[in-house]
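[Help] Beginner question about ligand-bound structures

Sorry if this is basic. My supervisor gave me a protein sequence and a SMILES string for zinc ion and asked me to "get the holo structure". I don't really know what that means in practice or what format the answer should be in. Inputs are pasted below exactly as I got them.
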Amino acid sequence: MKKVILIIMLLFVTGCNKEVKKEVTYKEKITIKIGEEVPSLEDYITSDYCESCTIEWTNIELEDNKVYVANTYEGILKIGNKDVSVNLEVIDDEAPSINNIKDITITAGDKVDLLKDITATDNSKDEIDLSISEDSVYDINKAGTYNIEVIAKDSSDNSAKETFKLIVKEKVIPKEEVVDIPNVPDVDLSGTTTKGYQINRIDGIYYINGILIANKTYALPSTYNPGGLRSEFMTAFNKMKEAAKADGVTITIISGYRSYSYQKALYDGYVKTYGKAMTDTFSARPGNSEHQSGLAADLNRIDDNFGNTKEGKWLDLNASKYGFILRYPKGKQSITGYKYEPWHFRYIGDEATNLYQNGEWTTLEEYLGIDSKYQS
Ligand SMILES: [Zn+2]
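Answer (accepted):
No worries, everyone starts somewhere. Holo just means with the ligand present. The predicted complex, written as structure tokens, is below.
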């Protein structure tokens, strides 16, 4: 009889304990917007009881107790000596705003950095990606009024767009001031290169190993006019552009084909401002410009720093897969005759991959064994 009573008492005591120790309930996740205060422990606990509870966040950066980086953060909620994990989702659904947008006026041939004065502000503390949309079609070498669309994107993919006008004014060169340019020497340079390739001249155009050559030694005839970028260039370019787009990189052509007469006006204009010796380091004489070939174009931005941008790096790494070469690499001025131009790409076809090995460019001159020097 005594034993039975004891068992009943024990059951009663255990039952009592259960009622005293109330169960702690909590939210597993709370969602807030960027710039809002981080929720407190009390916001997570849904029961009215939690003995010596604490909450700790990992990898969260707070400014005045607020979060500015969109992410899902993990926290450890300690309930007595039990750890449970909770989440804080910080979302950003606000687009950045674009500031300082205004129309730009230049003279044809001027160098311009379209994004130079534009800034973006955002509710997040992210670096905002500013770019020119691929729908903005313009040519800094051709007079006209172009609509330029700027896109600002934050790391949560919220984006804003603003448009401004790029006004390219005609370059006027009074006839009497036109500098006399040495005529393209009409000497036949056919023969063999130092690498053993045949130099063929067909209709006045030089081809080496099937590649059309336009540099300071080998000029194009003034009558050569493909009328625009050639179809093989455009087909390969569009393929490359699509691949870049898939990687989140926008590639645009800002200057493609230039006629002999246009290049003449451009060169003359530069000579007036910079003198002939200086001009020869960055602008081709008419006939010697690769832009006349319809197989070369300036992409995205004419800016010495372009090679360090996301777009410049992508092109450097991937252009050769699509048949393009960086025509004037860094440190090769004595070989190509031109300063580093991270924006100028030339289409040569399948052989392009031979010129880009282990992250280094070989120049077309080195590859074929030819010079790029004016005769006078
Ligand atoms: Zn160029």
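A couple of things worth pointing out: Residues 95 and 157 are 8 Å apart (CA to CA). Confidence is low (pLDDT under 50) at residues 4-19. Feel free to follow up in the thread.
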